[in-house]
Amino acid sequence: MIDKDRIYAEPQTQVSDFVFDEQVARVFPDMIKRSVPGYPTVMESTGLIAGQYATPGSLIYDLGCSLGAATQAIRRHVRADGCRVIAVDNASAMVERCREYLSAQDAMIEELLPVEVLQADILALRLQPCSVVVLNFTLQFIAPELRLGLLRQIYESLLPGGVLILSEKLEFADSFTGSELQRLHYAFKRANGYSELEIAQKRTAIERVMLPDTLDTHRLRLQDAGFAQVVPWFQCFNFCSLIGFK
Ligand SMILES: Nc1ncnc2c1ncn2[C@@H]1O[C@H](C[S@+](CC[C@H]([NH3+])C(=O)[O-])CC(=O)[O-])[C@@H](O)[C@H]1O
Ligand SMILES: O=C(O)C(=O)Cc1ccccc1
Known about the structure:
The chain is α/β, with parallel strands linked by helices. The chain contains 8 helices and 8 strands.
């Protein structure tokens, strides 16, 4: 059911902008694992972190959930009574498969947290009070001018003591750091079987739709949104994850 990602394997006369469609959804677990250094660690740790901050009877959001990898980890780790997960994505191909994966998890493990998968634009959602919000590799796909507003809404919806887990690809102000970490990221992709052509075509496909920020930009914006403390807990090459504390 999970196909190998060969989307950019053949030469394309014109590479179009990256979209989360059926073709991507079908290969997504393979694509993200071979493309994002540290992805399995970030997913498992997202569950562990959620387990530390989820309070009894509270909601947990997974925004831009794709196939629900973080939601699955959250359901394995959170032990607080009466919690519920709301997983949201605006791509119908992702939402459909996400529901299938979560049903399969339900069939394998008893007494998992209830989860609701919504097909919706996270910019249009009215968030309910919650203890944990996960935004893993999704803010980078949101129009830059809308990012602060989204983080403010998340901050406002968090209960006292609540946290945001934010994972992103990073941009670097220092050109040496930026080019060396990009080189290492491409070496990671090559080591995972991607060809130079695949790497180059994917780069073209994402360059107009995925716009990473620097760590400083993330910090300042999170503070501006209200977060009292921002703690980076993970970095592998040019990918990182932060916890924002209310
Ligand atoms: N406005 C939006 N509203 C809702 N969803 C959106 C929006 N914009 C983008 N998305 C969704 O955000 C997801 C980003 S992938 C997240 C990986 C996942 N978190 C994972 O940890 O496996 C990141 C990546 O592929 O690099 C896609 O499923 C989009 O449809
Ligand atoms: O592939 C890349 O270069 C990335 O930066 C990560 C990524 C992973 C999956 C979809 C889009 C981008």
